[in-house]
Amino acid sequence: MRLVGKTAVITGAASGIGRACAQRFHAEGARVIGIDIAAGEVSGVEHWEVADVRLESPIANAISAAHSILGRVDILVNAAGVATGGSAIDVPEEEWDRVLDINLKGTWLACKHVLPYMVAQRQGSIINLASIEGIEAFESQLAYNASKGGVILITKNMAIDYGQHGVRVNCLCPGLIETPMTQVLREPGLEAVNETFVKGHMLGRAGKPEEVAAAALFLASDDASFVSGSALVVDGGFTAGRRLSDAGPIA
Q: Residue 21 sits in which domain range?
């Protein structure tokens, strides 16, 4: 029960990692309000605010409403996100805009409207969802790489700007996680791509949303009271490097 007495606002709470965070945070004693493009059915979410994170007025209103209901906001998790494919030549402009607007602009807007409350109360923990694709480039993932790399840097920027006010800002960089967003990799015709991606994780499997939520819980809790500006990888060893043999350590 590491979040007893804490309040949390989670974007993208209706599915995937956001949903797992909402459920875990509630189980740890937090009061949780979810923000999503559509309200979901998630145990532990006390109230839903329907908003598109790309639009400032709706997200500002949603966070204001959440603060009114909760009385304060101790934790913000920015889990709303989308993916797309395409290289610099073939990614459509509208897809570039959609991915950057949701993943990067949406993260900034939610932070922008939560931070004044956290600064006023001299306490808060913001957890942004980045990705290993913000650390390393992936083939035909230009827009997604750019958006998640941006999330890592705005996380560090806000950790610098608001640390003096008692606000901690960190991000998580998950590897391949079994969520609705990554379901496309498990569809017929993409078996080889999925297998290659999975093999790149030194633990030999994809992760689960609950495993990312456990890392988010650490960052949200007082156990991480001296952790700010970090990009914590939750990737089963993907960014550790590359294995040269499937037979185990080379003698």
A: 7-179+209-231
